[in-house]
């Protein structure tokens, strides 16, 4: 990236004033000339995401307009072909460095395209299973999407691929529990809480990066799982009980790891569980306005506690040691 007019004038002024030698000024020009131009990296990254999404949507539209005219094999071939094009595009974005080694916008775009491969692959499995008149085709499709997203996460992790794998985790666990196990809301909720726990463990083990986002996905899965029994036939205590247990676990994890995301999960869990407990104990006798008021009070108190915990957090040794 060569110097602009203003930078060149400033460099000449420093040479004239004797603060830099001619050789030093030349070294500065050489360093800037060798630096890569990055101002359009975000545009290429956005183009990669948009292109992958458009390919997936285009394939679905094509199948939709010619659905009755295509056989199952042709439909599967089109979807697998779209997935292959996405994978090739991901490799092209990564360049010579490869998917694992490339960094910056190129790496994120490559990772995003690789994660999007899960969408047409899941659709291909759904169509293939439908051709066999298999009643479990939604489960097969969800598991295929989850598997593809996990592979993408292992090959090249990025925020987009983490979110993609998290969404597939929620969908696969929910559909599988209902379709194969015949589980009701309670069973599905317990499975989602377990899935969230797995995400949190893997994130703390640095197997999912960036770690805060992995913890956020795990906490979200656990909170959603805790709330799931409230929408089924199980006693309400299962709902706010699981949510409160999740909040307590998040609090303990924060105390031992100082991961801020875990503190956020604890505050959210308490804010949900306490009003639900009050509503259940009073058998719905309180008006909605009172429940909203209680929710606000709990949120304020939990937030104040969180702020106090943050302010009393121990300072890391490297931050507290004078140079």
UniProtKB/TrEMBL annotation:
The keyword Disulfide bond does not apply. It comes from Allocatelliglobosispora scoriae. This is DUF2157 domain-containing protein. Keywords: Membrane, Transmembrane, Transmembrane helix. The chain crosses the membrane at residues 46-67, 73-97, 109-129, 135-155, 162-183, 189-208, 213-231, 237-254, 261-279, 285-307. The keyword Metal-binding does not apply. It comes from the Bacteria.
């Amino acid at each position: 990236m060569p110097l602009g007019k203003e930078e060149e004038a400033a460099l000449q002024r420093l040479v004239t004033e004797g603060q830099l030698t001619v050789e030093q000024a030349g070294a500065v020009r050489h360093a800037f000339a060798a630096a890569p131009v990055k101002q359009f990296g975000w545009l290429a990254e956005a183009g990669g995401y948009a292109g992958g999404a458009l390919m997936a949507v285009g394939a679905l539209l094509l199948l939709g307009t010619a659905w009755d005219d295509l056989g199952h094999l042709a439909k599967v071939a089109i979807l697998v072909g779209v997935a292959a094009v996405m994978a090739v595009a991901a490799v092209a974005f990564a360049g010579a460095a490869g998917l694992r080694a490339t960094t910056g916008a190129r790496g994120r775009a490559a990772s995003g395209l690789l994660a999007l491969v899960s969408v047409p692959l899941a659709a291909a499995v759904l169509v293939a299973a439908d051709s066999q008149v298999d009643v479990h085709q939604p489960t097969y499709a969800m598991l295929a999407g989850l598997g593809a997203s996990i592979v993408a996460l292992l090959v090249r992790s990025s925020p987009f691929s983490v979110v993609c794998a998290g969404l597939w985790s929620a969908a696969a666990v929910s559909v599988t529990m209902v379709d194969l196990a015949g589980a009701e809301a309670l069973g599905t909720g317990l499975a989602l809480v377990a899935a969230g726990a797995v995400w949190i463990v893997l994130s703390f083990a640095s197997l999912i990066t960036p770690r805060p986002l992995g913890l956020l996905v795990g906490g979200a899965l656990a909170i959603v799982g805790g709330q799931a029994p409230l929408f089924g036939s199980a006693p309400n205590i299962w709902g706010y009980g699981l949510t409160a247990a999740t909040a307590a676990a998040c609090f303990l994890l924060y105390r031992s790891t100082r991961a801020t995301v875990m503190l956020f999960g604890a505050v959210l869990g308490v804010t949900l569980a306490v009003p639900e407990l009050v509503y259940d104990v009073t058998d719905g006798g309180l008006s909605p306005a009172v429940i909203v008021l209680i929710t606000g009070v709990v949120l304020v108190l939990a937030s104040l506690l969180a702020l106090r915990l943050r302010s009393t957090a121990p300072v890391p040794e490297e931050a507290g040691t004078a140079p």
